[in-house]
Every structure is written in C-alpha cells, then in structure tokens.
# Entry
Amino acid sequence: MSTGAKKRIMKEYAECAADTPAGMKIIFDEQNMTKWEVLLDGPDQSIYAGGHFKLEITFPNEYPFKPPVVSFKTKIYHPNVSNDDKGSMCLGLLRPDEWKPPNKVVSVLRLIQTLLIEPDIDDSIEPSIANEYKENRKEFDKNAKDWVKRYAK
Amino acid sequence: MSTPSPIPPPNDRRSSRASSNAGPPSSNLNVPSEPSDLLVVGGPPSSPSPLALRASNSPSSKRRKSRAAKVPPDVHMLEYVSACDSNLVCLICHSPFDRPVKLPCEHYFCRECVDHAWDAQQEDLRSCPTCRTKVDPQKDLSPVPRIIETMLDELVVKCPNTKTGCDWVDQRVNVHDHVMLYCEYTLVECPSTDCRLPISQKDFHKGCLHSTVSCEHCHASLMKKDLEVGSVMSICPNRSTNCPHCFIELLRLDLKPHVKDVCPMVSIPCSGAIVGCKVTAERIEVEEHEKTCPMATMAPFFREQQARVERSEARLDPLSRKIGILEDGLTNITSMLYPANGNDSSFPVTNPLDPNSSEAFPPASLMPTPDFRLPPASFPPVPQSSDTTQAQPPFDSQVHHLLTLHESLRDEVSRVSNALTELEGRTSMTIMNENQRVKEDMLHTNAAINGMRMQLHWLMSATLQQRSASAAGSSTARAGSSTGPSASGSGTQGASSRASATFRAPIRRLSDSTRQDVKL
Ligand SMILES: [Zn+2]
Ligand SMILES: [Zn+2]
Ligand SMILES: [Zn+2]
Ligand SMILES: [Zn+2]
Ligand SMILES: [Zn+2]
Ligand SMILES: [Zn+2]
Ligand SMILES: [Zn+2]
# Structure
C-alpha cells in the first residue's frame, strides 16, 4: 500500500473520529490501519434496535481506487448481508464498478445505517430473506428480532 | 505517452518554477558548486508513472552515480501548519493539491492521483473519478487557474525533517529548495566510498560516522554518528547531567539518590509531619527548621512509642481470644455442675480482683458472684520522665487477671475430681450391699429347690412302688397307697387320689406340691 493511501486512511480516520455517526464506535489500530473495527448499535427506529453489531472495514491495497470491503462479524438477519461466516455487504457505492475515489468511509458508514433502517430489496444478496421481507413482513420482523436476541446482545 | 501535453510532466515537481526558469526540469535543483551528475532529481520527461518516478528517485537506484543525492520532498507527505480551505483539497488523496490538473468536467485532481486512478482503468475507458465523464488523458487535461496555483504555493508547511530536528516553517513553494539546498537535516549518502548509509547533511563533512564504537563509560556499543549528535548523552548512565533542582553536575546514575537524600533544593516535608508539623520546604530550609521545631524533636520518640503500642496491640489480640475460650469453657463447666441455679451465687470462683480469696476455699453458698469483666485500668503511678512505660500497666493487670482466672479454674477442676471419687466410692458401696442381698436370696431359693427335689424324688419312688404293687395284686396296692398320704401330710388329697383313677394321682400331686413350694 502506498504512503499516499495510508495518509488518506489516516485522514479519513481523523475525520470519522471527529464526527462519528451516532451509535457507532470505530476501533483503529495504527499498526494495522487497513482494518477498522466498527461497533454499531442497531438504529432506534429499526427492528435491530437494542442489538450491538461488530463490523469490519478492510481497505484494499488500491484504496481509494477500489472500494473498502464491509463485513458483519455479528450475524444479522438482513436481505443485504450475506448469511454466511463472512457477513459481507456489497451494494450501492460498495460495488467496485460504482465506487469512486472521492467517496469516503463516512458515507459507507451512513449507508450501512440507512440499510439497517430500510433494506434495499432490489439489490439483495439473500433472495429468500428479501422475499420474506416483501411477502411476509411479520415473519421477517420476528426472525430479525430473534437473531438480534440470539447474536447481537 | 510521450506526446506533449498542455500541462507539465509529472517529474517536474515545481511546475510554476520550472516554467518561470524556462530551463530543463532538473536545472534548478543542482547545487551550483557541484558537478551536475551529483544531484539528478526526477526521471526523463517521458517517465510514465509517478510511482516509477519515485522509485527511481530513491537512493538505491542512484547510488552509483551520485553520492550526495537527496530525496526531494513528497508534497503529499508534508505537514501543514493550519487547516487548509476544503476547496484546495484533492478528493482522492485528501491533501492540498500537488501539481493539480483540470478535467474537462471542471473537476480538479493532483496529477499523480488522477494518474493512479486511471492506472486502475482500461486505457480507452478513462473517466473523471468524481463524475465519470469520459476523459482522454492525452488531450483533455488542462492547467488549473493561476490563482489556485498561487493559493497552493502560499500554504504554510513544516520541513519534512521536523522529526530529526529542523524547525523550518515556510510557504510550500519554498519547501523544495529548503530540503534540497539548505536543510541541514536532509539525509544524504555517507561520503565514504564503501559506506552507503544515510547521514544528515550537517554531519556530511565529518566523514563516515557509521563505525560502531563502544561507550567509554558504560561500554554499550553505539554508532559513532549517535555519539556525535549527542543522543548518547541522554542515555548513558555514566554521562554527567545536571540535577533539575540544584543544577549541580553529577553522573546520571547518581541523580536518583541525590534527589532522594541529598539535594538541598528539592522540597521535602518536616520530619515532625507525623506529629502534625505542616512545614514543607526545600531541604536546606527544612533542616534549619527542624533544629527549632519541637515536633521534629518529638518525632523519633513518637515513632518508637507508636511501634511499641502496635506491638502490644498485636500481642493483646490472641490473649483476648484465649480469654474468650476460657470463659466459654468455664460457663459450660458451671452449668454442668450446677444445672439448677446456673452460675449465679453458688459458683465457687474467687474474685479475680482479690488475690487473697483464691487461697482459702469458702463454702459454695458463700462464694461471691464471679466477675469476668476486665478490671478498671488502675495503673501504678508512672514517673513523668519515662514516657515509654505507659503502655505496660494495663497489659500487666490483664495478665494478672488471667492468671487468677486460671488458678480458680484449676481449683474447680480438682474439686470436681474429688467429688467424682467420692461418688464412685459411694456407688461401689451400694453395689456391694445389693450384691450381698441378692446372694442371700439365691441361697434361700437354692435350699427350697433342693427340698422340692427331695420331695419329688420320694414321691416318684413311691409312685413306682405303688404301680408295681398294683401290677402284683390289689391287696398290696392298697397297702402301698395307705403309706402315701401319711408322708405327704395332707389327708384330703390322699383321699381324693384314692377315689380317682390310680394312674392320674402322681401327676396332680406333682403340680400341687410345686405350687406350694413356690408360695413358701
Ligand atoms: Zn491528490
Ligand atoms: Zn468530473
Ligand atoms: Zn529543514
Ligand atoms: Zn558511513
Ligand atoms: Zn555510556
Ligand atoms: Zn540537586
Ligand atoms: Zn517542623
């Protein structure tokens, strides 16, 4: 990773630390600055309220020319988060073809929060969960809350 | 790639300067007094990638040619003194623009940043990183407005060698010249031919300083250059240093004991502080003060006193526990001995306060009520001069009390054992008496049984005779039976047996006589 990219990550961290989106905490290790740990509280107006989720944001060597990689370390029942041990999230500006170098991590963090409040059904990674969200909202809410209780307390 | 473009090639780091100088890009970088090959900075104009350019600038690739080659400052790495206008910040590197270019869509980027962005894209699909408008790098790049260049030039930065000691702060436009020409802290290659390690510009004339030397004081091995810059002065325990309080010069390893025990200027409290003196001042003042401070004079006595009290208290604790155990045992014994009236008036324990009463043992009913409370502290008068013995008296009287208690306990136990012996004697007496009686009874019974046996024997033989007689003839049987009743002493019985069948008579007689014998 080039020193320029490292400098940019440092600057972005300083920016995030000064103005962290509400309900988030960023754990930054200067020895390994390409991997951020984010502790995220489920937004109050979402069904994930009360849950505490751990995310990992990994910056590729080509950052900022390639998007950062977001993965949920805490299991979450969500149409846009892959239901495997990776818990990856790949939509919107996180897609390599959508990502632009001027985008910032803060906007990624904001996107994640928005998606917890309102999943993006048309761009889902888990079609069965998306289907449930569309057809049987009650069941979806119940499952999501169940998972919060089981994994995110 | 080598087609001329409207903006300067990436290797020319100071575009504004280069254009004004109108010379070859590297001309303004040369130290005037040295041959031109000593300071070659930047690659040929056609050098395609800034990364490759930076690599070619590194000392390793230039080593053979230029011994004193310096690395030009990387504008992206500069530290800015104040936050800069967000409009002057490149959206890719988040730093103020470095040699910015303008895209047709009016978006600005550092030349280097936009090149990097395009490295990741296919050759014919290059677009603006912000708005994705298609861009042809060969034609569409244009210089930014002059005013932006000026604003960037006027940003105030620190020298990149700030960490190693340079305190230069000036406009960004001058940083290149400062680092390449004037900064004493810029690293250059060692002047020695076979040594290629970097050394600061200011130590260049001293020759190679990269030999390892051993500190003459502590024998740690160090690079000579570290000795030169004097950093060793702040590590070596055998180097002299100044006391931060009194400023005398002394060896670093002596500094701690000096400050702790000797330094006249370090501030310490008066030694009478444990008695309550509030004075805290520099050591010389405190020493002066202690000569007159009554509390400082008292302090050693007080400390000794305190130690003594603590020792006594420590000894007291197991003792009081022992008393508790003894008291419990005493109460148990008392309630065992006198279950009716408990341990009130009859408890034969002497008053521990009266040492005389423990000698003679008054009758139980006259005993005073036992008193286990500690005696009121009655100290013998203490001479005023020796204040060290004050802790002794209460301690003594308690031991005395304990001893008295112990004594009375022992008496009590012997009394109990006496009583037990007496009781045992009486019991064995009773048992013997009882035995005697039982033995006599048994003799009586034996005699009676013997009598009975004799009678039975006689009866049996009589019956046998009778039977044999009846078998021989009725006349003899009558004669036999006539003798029977006279021996038994009961006429009516003999008559009835005669009347009944001859076979039954002996059985009935047997049972009757047995009953009569028992009644006897
Ligand atoms: Zn840039
Ligand atoms: Zn654009
Ligand atoms: Zn400098
Ligand atoms: Zn050397
Ligand atoms: Zn030393
Ligand atoms: Zn001193
Ligand atoms: Zn004092």
Notes: Chain B touches chain A at residues 51, 74, 76-77, 91-95, 112-113, 116-117, 119-120, 129-130, 132 (CB under 8 Å).
